[in-house]
Amino acid sequence: MFERTFKSFIIGAAIVVIAVVLPAASFARADAIVSWGNDNYDQVSDTPVGGDFVDIAGGSWHSLALKSDGAIVSWGRDNCDQVDDTPTETGFVGIAAGYGHSLALKSNGAIVSWGDDGFDQVGDTPTESGFIGVAAGNYHSLALKSDGSIVSWGDDDYGQVGDTPTESGFVDIAGGSWHSLALKSDGSIVSWGSDFYGQVGDTPTESGFVGIAGGGNHSLALKSDGSIVSWGRDTDDQVGDTPGGDGFVDIAGGGFHSLALTPEPGALSLLLIGAAGLLRRKRK
What is the CATH number of the domain that holds 195? Predict the structure, then answer.
């Protein structure tokens, strides 16, 4: 079996795919990172070799990888110091990447951020500790507290910050380009922000979901039986070609495509949906 090691990233126009290949019956670390797609800024060719990676995240043209000791490796475009300013210490437990900024979660729940700060998506990062998750959109960021409440900051052109739910009890967060999603403990989904393509208004109203992902202008949700629901923009069949059936273990949303992970023993099995020419991305 495989640990759920698939995360969504893309933001904006560039799409790159990364996968962390996990050996069967191994859940603590990965053997290697595999990447493919757009390589304009060496975000593919500079992918680190070797193992000991436990998580990955990708922005538009840069990527991050988390090692088992909590150290972060980054590569790709560095126009906003999203690579050069990567923290050098160890002890991190989570990472996220936006268009040109990044976030990292420390073991004490404190957040470190760096890179593009055009919308205060770095400068307004909370200074307290106690967070258990981070996520990023194009120019906004989100963090999940231990009580299940959400903090967001950065670009608010479409209410992706101002409309953030104020209640607690959430268990997961995800960022799209200009919209966000949160998963409640009962498996229901709340979404807010840009709704030009129904990526907010068409959010399912039932409960029982176990995973969420945000794409450019579409969203996905994973049910407890491993089936997938998707909604929003469908220009490249990133919604319309969503596979039927069940048994999927993770989902991710790209700018114009979607991905789903199936539990193939001994190998990573990725199903890519939509925009066949845009299958570039990274995954953990």
Answer: 2.130.10.30
